[in-house]
Amino acid sequence: MLLASFKCEQKELPLVYEEENTGAKYLTSGKLEFPEFGLDNPIEDLPSPFAWASGKGEVKSFKDWEKRRNEISAMIQYYETGTKPVTDRENIEARMSGDTLFVDVTVNGQTLSLFSRIFYPDTDVPGPYPIMIGSSRMSLPREIFTERPIALMDFNERQVCNYGQWGPHDSRGSYSFDRLFPELEANGAYIEWAWGFSRIIDGLQILGPE
């Protein structure tokens, strides 16, 4: 468990932000530099998540955290997963067919169509409802949600990248994600799946309450 206390400069946080990453400017500023690590210099102790990568000081305010969380994200993408590309909302189209959300994403002249069904709660409580978005192997039992005013959505991440430890799958460079971003074929599956989840969320926000 992480416990932290720092000054919050904003009295009430919005439930929904209009952009995916309000601190994206820190990722493109060119000011984030990370050292190279090898097996000969392991980090044995878990570092504080609130300490700057430079080792000079820690987060002191909510505004600082906007920068620090992007620093953490950049480190994960640099050392582990590969890059999560930014996708403009204008390149995304969304529509509903029954209870299924369809999202078309067009990048570099290539279109990837994603879909995900929404399961509405069996409750007398009127909407709108918060929504729990899970992957194809979501481990949480549905009983936790079915009698509460919470909607469910199952997103099959294999629509983006069908890598898996079991069964057949495409090879690196041949995933659906790679058609849109061939320059990122060295990416790991986790970051590509995360990109797909973000596009589903884009679709929900584009359509708004229905």
- Biggest β-sheet description: 5 strands, mixed
- Topology, number of strands: 5
Helical fraction: 10-25%
Spans of at least 5 consecutive residues with low confidence: none
Averaging pLDDT over every residue, what do you get?
A: 85
Counting H and I runs of at least 4 residues, what is the number of helices?
Answer: 5
The fraction of residues in strands falls at 15-25%
From N to C, what is the helix and strand string? HHEEEEHEHH
What structural class should be given to the helix and strand makeup?
alpha+beta
Structure characterization notes:
By secondary structure, the protein is an alpha+beta fold. It has 2 domains: 24-81, no CATH class; 90-207, no CATH class. 25% of the residues lie in helices and 15% in strands. The protein is built from 5 helices and 5 strands. The protein has helices at residues 24-27, 62-81, 143-146, 176-180, 189-207; strands spanning 92-97, 100-107, 110-119, 131-134, 151-154. A 5-stranded mixed β-sheet has the order 1-2-3-5-4. The protein is globular, with a radius of gyration of 20 Å.
